[in-house]
Amino acid sequence: MNKQELRLLLVQAESESKFGNYNAVEKLCHEVLAELTVAEPTGTEMLLLHSHALRLFSESLWRRGRTSESLTFAQDALAISQQSKLQEEEAWSLGNIGNVYWSQSDFQTALTYYQKAVRLFEELYIPAGVAKYLGNIGTIERNFYDFPSALSTYQRALHLYESIEDKEGIAINLGNIGLVYKSLSDYSQAILYYQKALTMYEALEMRDGIARTLCNIGNLYRNLSDYPRALDYLHKGLAIFTTLNDKQGEATILSNIGNVYLSLSEYTPALVYHQRALAMNQELNSTSGIAKNLGNIGLVYTSREEYPKAMEYLNQALELNKELGRSGAVAGVLCNIGALHANQKYEAYNPTLAEHYLLEAISLNESLGIKQNLYESYLVLAELYRHTNQWDKFAYYFEKYHIAEKEVQNEQTKRLAERFDFERKIAAEHARLEEREAVVAELQSLNSSLQEANREKNEMLGIVAHDLKNPLTGILLSAESMKRFQSTMSDIDIDKRLTNILSAAEHMKAIILKLLDIQQLESGSFQLAPIPIELDIYIKESINRYSDQALTKKIAVQFQKNIHPTTILADSHALQEVIDNILSNALKFSPFESSISILVSTVRNERAQLSITDQGPGISAIDQTKLFEKFMQLSAKPTGGEHSSGLGLSIVKKLLDAMNGNIRCESILGHGASFIIELPLG
Fold first, then answer.
1. CA 431 from chain center: how many Å?
2. What does pTM read for this prediction?
3. How many Å apart are CA 628 and CA 633, to the nearest integer?
């Protein structure tokens, strides 16, 4: 392959990646890399292609959870770009390595690579690169509960994307800003940003973005205790991630579905979903995902009153989150451990220890501004003080719980969420109506076609009945005469009537065969097998076949052929029928003692041309517009009393269309007609 072909393959891989078709991405990159391995790339452009292919391959692998392999390819891409001083490619490779470390929950290393990528993109004045990895830095800040910094970083990225009109980047950052507001329990703002992001993703047909946003919306509905809607959105997102084979997305959304079932007190499905998510995150080697799943499984066991198991899972989650430095997640697990120690059914019930864990969780949540976790912690602590008869403390924290709950579960937010879901359903209903209207229109069109077909059928039956009636009447009359007067008829009279019977029967047979041809052609059952054949041979056979008819009318048939035989690509039987029909028509409409000329030549576009010209009455301009329609009885009449079914030219047209040929007529009324056929050379 040359450079241009390799470049086009990578452009295609980039496009497939945007739509989440990672199998296709890997296949295309593998094709490029295999070619480059054989060619041993040298030169700046070929090295750029090599690095780009490695990077795209790496990105596809980490999205599918194969992070160890992904890191190897990512580092190879970086090494080539650095050695070749390909600075833009180096910047993209740095960011890609950051993504791999992010997938492995090594957030500090990921942040380092993202920052290097941003600095290099800034030096190169490439706003798209700056915006992309600013967005990733914002996500790290958000995951470490630094919400003000995350919001500021996302907004910087959003403004950059808006300045270059990058719709994909705009959609991503709208969704990210929505996540920050959701984490801050400002659900009114969150739902507005999610709605904008989802609308853009759907317009762009970006399935991974649609799935992520559906997941985020599902989580928001869970926080609003609207569990049916939450499950609806989460399952839609899961279906897309499964189709894309996006393991990270699947693991995240499985865990979220488990949380909804936990909120519904359906503990068996909750445990199943969390265990599936845990197994997937262990396969992905995602420490942050594992920590989250362990904590969720601990909550399920708590609800099932399997307290020792619950404490085991919660302690594992606490240690992992502390190692990762995720203070918000630590606060959440501390609250759950405190709640477990505050449970009088737990054999290790310890109100003092429970108070310690809960106060530590509240302190962390207050410093981070996580209102959702705060009001849950306030409620658990208030309940603990109620059970231990510490009424002043109970009143204090119970009031704080109600204040926090009102801030989180406000009516405006619920109305916005309901309006959003309503608008989605209205949009879906509009889509269904449009689809229904399209179906109705199609049915109306089919109905019109059926009516036309029925009209054509009735017309055909009338014409066929008329065309068959005359020869059939002739047969009956001749047969009846022979029966009644056989004893008095001479041999000459008997022979004459038998000839009439045979002639009429042949005419009826010809009509029936043409009808069968039309039926087969229109139903698609007329199978053609085009092969290279000599056109001259079939013309001569047709001339010989109609020599008696030409002799009867004293018509001279003159054939002017090429010096060399003309080979065309056609079906032998279909070709013979085409030539027979045209020559037969020329003989029918030619006057006695005239001539017919047949000419074969080669024309443009590698096609052979066959012209059959008669000296008949010609064809009017109006008749020429109807020539190739079925059952067309034109103003010109056969000159020797011959029969015409009006089917021959219709069959010719359909046969030629099927052989990639064409036919036209050139005629001036009163000066004969030329039928010109073109077929591809063989």
1. 17
2. 0.51
3. 11
